[in-house]
Known about the structure:
About 75% of the residues lie in helices and about 0% in strands. By secondary structure, the protein is mainly alpha-helical.
Amino acid sequence: MVLILDCVDGQLARAKKCSSDWGRLLDGIAGYIIYLAVLAGIMIGLDKEYMTLALFGLITILRAIAYDYCKLTMITMIQKGSDGNFQEILDTYSKISDNDSILLRVYFYYLQLQRLMFCGRFTSLGEFVGSGREDYKGDLMSSSERKDYQQKASPLMIAWSWNGVDLPLFLLVLMSLFGVIESYLLPLVCFLTLQFVLTIIYHQTQTQRLLNIGKVKSI
Length: 219
């Protein structure tokens, strides 16, 4: 039901013209809460396999963090010609400056964690206030460069489409319903880990070639 209704809230908000950045942020948080609730329920139901389920949870969260980063990057590269993660961090910092809150600070560091995973760089909020913002500059791509990027990034987009939260959660619930989770849980964790690692390697091999289009800078 969650997988089916996941897009309904956004469509409804846009139709009623009441969408907001807060709504988008809360939607993402709700997704993590739902996922962790399902995982906790299975842990309670099994009354064992805690370590394997914890590893399952860790790899799935890492997949989700990486997927969110790459999804935003590729969509904004194609639509606007620049990496949307640049602007997302700047916008979050601006919101913190106007109306500081724990939720916004957590989201800021969530974005920095993504940056660390893919770029090997991390800037604390205190460092960002100083010279950290100077790193967040990117070149805009022309219309033809965006089309070229979309064509070359298509295989990478397909690879990342299999690395979100939905696939692991669906497989976990499916195995639970058929009563085979104890037999196939560890192989599933190994499969998901291997898939994620191979996608990361493929991503790194393709990133430089893609970033050379229009000389787009990476953070």
